[in-house]
Design goal:
The complex is a heterodimer of chains A (356) and B (356).
Chain A lengths: L3 E6 L5 H11 L4 E7 L3 H11 L4 E3 L12 E4 L6 H10 L4 E3 L7 H14 L3 E3 L7 H12 L5 E7 L19 H4 L2 H11 L5 E7 L10 E7 L5 E5 L11 E5 L2 E5 L3 E6 L32 E6 L6 H19 L7 H17 L8
Parallel strand pairs in A: 1-2, 1-4, 2-3, 4-5, 5-6, 7-10
Antiparallel strand pairs in A: 7-11, 8-9, 9-10, 11-12, 12-13, 13-14
Chain B lengths: L3 E6 L5 H11 L4 E7 L3 H11 L4 E3 L12 E4 L6 H10 L4 E3 L7 H13 L4 E3 L7 H12 L5 E7 L19 H4 L2 H11 L5 E7 L10 E7 L5 E7 L9 E5 L2 E5 L3 E6 L32 E6 L7 H19 L7 H17 L7
Parallel strand pairs in B: 1-2, 1-4, 2-3, 4-5, 5-6, 7-10
Antiparallel strand pairs in B: 7-11, 8-9, 9-10, 11-12, 12-13, 13-14
Classes of the chains: A alpha/beta (356), B alpha/beta (356).
Chain lengths: 356, 356
């Protein structure tokens, strides 16, 4: 099996905690040959994990000239765009962390640049590979829920934050930080076309100047209303997914899903009537019936490993893409749509900047 | 104690089951002297309940010769406006069921008519008196939750309907039927001013031609986002109320409320920082802290005084004092005008084809 030679830019929560962790555990396919981090102790840590012979640099430009199959760009979010462009320019394939870019036009520049440089660029939208999302997609695609009327997605929690991801200057804020996970899923569920958007953004408890409250509603003709929340002031999170359909409904967390549907042919035949009595009386009543529900549930088989499953799913696809030319499930066109939506949300909610 | 002489127009689900049921249990304050219903068996039923000497008519105009303290207008929704206007013009005080009117212009006409004829005009917005709502309002007003970011109100369920309330010609549909309950509460919580509105309406499983799916967003400067859903395709209703706020959160059904808040002065002092380590290591970490939550809960006592009865009783106590002692109405027609204006705007945004 071909072992791909990888460099990781950034040994932070993503480069160390997600990518490095996966790569170190999957040496049959990947070998980390270099890491970049501005912080010295993180470079030391990398040598401990990946081996003393790996190269460590404090500037990603020092990678230029190395023979690499792939560079993971897990730098700060605001560096995703310029570093990805520079890496492509210097002949590298790039796996970029989310958020891919700040604007749709940046995404287009990267796409064009990759074509021009004949290099591969991929975006780490690993939530596409989560088991709960794949299960929900399967239930929806089966058609058992009927027409989808509304999809509510809640990626919220209650927390205060005081790290770089709270800063607008770093492309921080809940929508750029966590948003790409549910927004990528939403783009898939929405299907073709660009949705209409109404977004609400606010600062609730952040120590930075970027939003920590986001609610985005998306809609379009013959499309479900998609209601997506990524807030840091949700003390009683009700679900991750709640779906309202014309023949059924679904409610799920990331580890458990309930859904049910009815079959119209199994229901009593009803006809429009103006007035109703309670059976056997003249007392007025509501029209009522018992819908015969077909109920189901699903449990994540490996609930302690949610994030690793997503990461492994993504990396397996990417490996086959780079070694055998298999199509990527996450396309750049989808990511461009995602960033276009995020950009529109920001356009609707300009926030003052604070100097730090 | 003065006993008010009442006539009820309509002996249906409202006139019989809500108003009539309340009056026979509160004969010290109210006496039903006449009822109106076009259906003969409902008139017979009324005589059984209120006594053989109660007057029973098939046309409300037969009331005009009577001496009454007020008339309950629980006719079909599309008759609320015309009958209320006629009653006022014939010198009667009127308690009108919801939905008060179809348009805010109609509401204004009724307000003007009541003024011209010096009559009392009241709207049965009994959800204002629901114990869960009063408790939630008390918690919000105490300020412990901090700044309110979002209020989600869910009055949904899963049902197919085939009665007159599914017909546009009868001013039916979820927004006119059920909507006045949460919309009245929402506007109280919104406070002064007219909110901006974004609404989504759809037909899912109805046998009529009015909507059975409604989602309404209310928003405005320095106001919480209020998200109201009244759908008939919600199979897993998560809550009646969910509140997100800068110092706390609340989640409630109509009989149970959970809420919690933290006190910033009790929290660890935090400062904006770019990079974090897991304590005692060089491994990257998220900023984390344990918020010291103060948690509470509240339970209604439905076995003592059911939620719906409580609402009706609360409303009628106010109404009695208003008619007998001239105390101010808590629910004013002017407030209801704003509610109808919001509902009207939702319909304007979502024109539905007519079938019947």
């Amino acid at each position: 099996m071909k072992q791909l030679r990888v460099a990781i830019i950034g040994q932070g929560r993503s480069g160390w905690g997600i990518h490095g962790e996966y790569l170190a555990a999957n040496k049959d396919r990947y070998i980390v040959v270099a890491v970049v981090d501005m912080i010295e102790k993180r470079r030391m840590l990398a040598k401990e994990r990946y081996g003393n012979d790996i190269l460590t640099f404090d500037d990603y430009r020092k990678l230029f000239g190395l023979d690499l199959d792939l560079v993971v760009n897990s730098s700060y979010s605001h560096m995703h765009y310029p570093i990805t462009m520079d890496l492509l320019e210097h002949g590298y394939n790039v796996l970029c962390e989310k958020p891919f870019a700040r604007t749709q036009s940046e995404v287009q520049n990267i796409i064009d640049h990759a074509v021009k440089c004949k290099r591969e660029v991929m975006v780490f939208q690993n939530s596409r590979y989560s088991s709960y999302f794949r299960k929900i997609k399967e239930v929806i695609d089966s058609g058992c829920l009927g027409d989808l009327i509304q999809i509510s997605m809640d990626f919220s929690r209650y927390e205060r934050r005081w790290d770089w991801q709270t800063l607008q200057s770093y492309n921080g804020g809940n929508l750029y930080n966590s948003g790409p996970h549910p927004m990528d899923q939403a783009v898939v569920l929405y299907g073709d076309g660009y949705p209409n958007i109404k977004a609400f953004m606010n600062r609730a408890n952040t120590y930075g100047d970027a939003e920590d409250y986001v609610k985005v509603v998306m809609w379009g003709e013959n499309k479900p209303v998609i209601d997506l929340e990524v807030t840091s002031c949700q003390g009683y999170k009700p679900y991750t997914y709640n779906i309202q359909g014309s023949r059924g409904a679904l409610n799920g967390s990331m580890t458990h899903i309930d859904w049910k549907y009815f079959i119209p042919e199994e229901c009593e035949k009803q006809e429009l009537k103006i007035s109703f009595d309670k059976p056997g009386s003249h007392i007025p009543a509501y029209c009522s019936e018992n819908i015969q529900w077909h109920e189901f549930s699903w449990d994540e088989p490996d609930p302690g490993n949610l994030f690793n499953i997503m990461t492994a799913g993504y990396y397996e696809m990417m490996y086959e893409h780079l070694t055998q030319g298999r199509k990527m499930m996450v396309t750049l066109e989808e990511v461009r749509k995602q960033i276009a939506i995020i950009e529109e949300c920001h356009r609707q909610n300009p926030m003052s900047r604070i100097e730090f | 104690m003065r006993q008010l002489k009442v006539a009820i127009i309509g002996q249906g689900r409202s006139g019989f089951s809500i108003h009539g049921a309340f009056f026979i249990e509160n004969k010290d304050k109210f006496e039903v002297v006449a009822i109106v219903d076009k259906i003969e068996k409902r008139r017979s039923l009324a005589k059984e309940r209120y006594g053989n000497d109660v007057l029973a008519f098939d046309d409300y105009k037969d009331l005009f010769k009577l001496d009454l303290d007020f008339v309950v207008n629980s006719s079909y929704s599309f008759q609320h406006y015309s009958i209320t206007k006629d009653l006022l013009e014939h010198g009667f005080n009127v308690l009108c069921e919801k939905p008060f009117c179809r348009t805010s212009e109609e509401v204004q006409t009724l307000i003007d008519t009541a003024k011209r004829y010096s009559r009392k005009l009241m709207v049965f917005q009994n959800s204002r008196y629901a114990s869960y709502f009063r408790k939630i309002k008390e918690i919000i007003d105490s300020g412990i939750l901090g700044e309110i970011m979002q209020i989600s109100i869910d009055f949904s369920g899963y049902a197919r309907r085939w009665d007159w309330q599914t017909l546009q010609s009868h001013n039916g549909g979820n927004l006119y039927n059920t909507g006045p309950h949460p919309m009245d509460q929402a506007l109280v919580l919104y406070g002064d001013g007219y909110p901006d509105v974004k609404a989504f309406m759809n037909r899912v499983n109805t046998f009529g031609d009015a909507e059975d799916y409604v989602k309404v967003l209310l928003f405005g400067e320095n106001k919480p986002v209020i998200d109201i859903e009244i759908t008939s395709c919600q199979g897993y209703k998560p809550y009646t109320y969910n509140i997100q706020a800068s110092r706390g959160a609340l989640n409630a059904s109509m009989t149970h409320i959970d809420y919690k808040y933290f006190i910033p002065d009790e929290c660890e002092k935090q400062e904006l920082k770019i990079s974090f380590d897991k304590p005692g290591t060089d491994t990257p970490a998220y900023c984390t802290e344990n918020l010291n939550w103060h948690e509470f809960q509240w339970d209604d006592a439905p076995e003592v005084y059911g939620t719906f009865k409580g609402m009706t009783g609360g409303f009628y106590n106010m109404l009695y004092d208003h008619i007998v002692s001239g105390t101010e109405l808590t629910v004013t027609p002017e407030q209801v005008k704003r509610q109808i204006a919001v509902i009207e705007e939702c319909h304007r945004q979502n024109p539905l084809s007519k079938k019947y």
